[in-house]
Design goal:
Layout: H1 4-37, H2 39-42, H3 44-53, H4 55-64, E1 67-68, E2 74-75, H5 77-96, H6 99-123, H7 139-169, H8 171-174, H9 178-205, H10 209-237, H11 250-257, H12 260-269, E3 279-280, H13 281-298, E4 302-309, H14 312-319, H15 321-338, E5 344-349, E6 352-358, H16 362-377, H17 379-383, E7 389-396, H18 403-419, E8 425-426
Helix pairs in contact: 1-5, 1-10, 4-5, 4-7, 5-6, 5-7, 5-10, 6-7, 6-11, 7-9, 7-11, 9-10, 14-15, 15-16
Amino acid sequence: MWDKGRWDRGRRLAISSLILLLAEAALYFGVMATLFRLRRQFGLGVFVCALGSLHFLETYLAAIFYIQAPFGTALSPGSIVLFSGKLVMLLLLYIREDAEAVRQPIYGLLFGNFLIVALVMVMRQHNMVTPVPGQFPDFPFLDQMGGLMIWGTVLLFVDSILLILLYERSAAWLGRNVTARIWLSASAVLTLDQVGFYLALYTFVGSPIEVFYGGWIGKMVAAAIFALFTGAYLRWFESEGGKLELRPRLADVFDALTYRERYQALLEQTGRDGLTGLYDRGRLERQGPLRVADALAAGRSLSLILVDIDGFKDINDRHGHAAGDQILRLVGTKLSDTMRSTDSIYRYGGDEFVVLSEGLAHDAALAAAERVRRAVETLSAEERIPVTISIGIATCPGEATSLSELFASADARLYAAKSAGRNRVVGGPEARGARPSTGNPHSVPDLV
């Protein structure tokens, strides 16, 4: 028989539980937003530490603590308030700071929770004593929580990246409506998260399907509430300038979130000469043949400019190797400043430099080389040490079909410039055959 009084009491309890949930969400957001607002005074560390300190409680509540909702399902404050709120806090950090700032707590939580599980595994190997009767560590509980924390943190890692990318992508649909973009992004990501986390709950604690449905409904409500809170906060407390107006490329955001830009920077530094910062001979040997082949296939000009510092051994002998190193750096700087930004400049070895200029015809390469020669000549007055360079130039497709042939032609012309008195540019065919058969310091590399 239906008991109306009991039903009314149940409904009142459920409504009061929802009111408490809303109060918890408001308290959570209010404190975290205040810490975030004070980041200029206290630093982001306070905000980030507060965010991470709740992770264990969030996981614990999501696993075993549920309340009854009016629509007949069970809700967990751990998932609805703490986890949903954490995601939106990470998005707020991204919106007002950048991807480099937000990736730090994301990776910190991931590594920290793996460390917790690893330490528990090691601690289990101790021979334990019980100074307090009846007090034993609950390792089965720690195992259960450890599995949930790792799985939840992996989900958080994926969720955070997806949330930020979707937030940026939604600008194409919703423009500058930040609140709507947060709600849409959070709703989509929390839906995916609920599927993934329920699988873990079912595996570790045997949660029934009602937990999935109730959790999803609760997270959708949380997405709307936190979106409204965040939109209001951004409008009333952080409306002054800042990153809200920027529209970064999704690829750049993804690269920053996953530290890919650091990998790209490392790759960029690989193959650099330690003294001048220019590309080194190894990179020339890797890239050069491909660039020549590409230029030949496309019918484009590619000029090789071979530069040698005149009398560099005498500079070292008279002024010391420190002065010689400084001259090498300065010549490298003059090359970088004078040549085009699209040209590739290599320190080939010793006092020799190579420039590959794609799309630069022979006459234009001669003019560019002459500008470099004059620029280096000014170093004599600046450094009070006579500094000049000799340059040989060759261009394909007219003169070569490989990098080795191109280098050989430029090297012969460089030798002709040296023989003619140094401090000059030679790029004409009259230099062919000018190199003696022995004693030439310029060896042609095997760059095929």
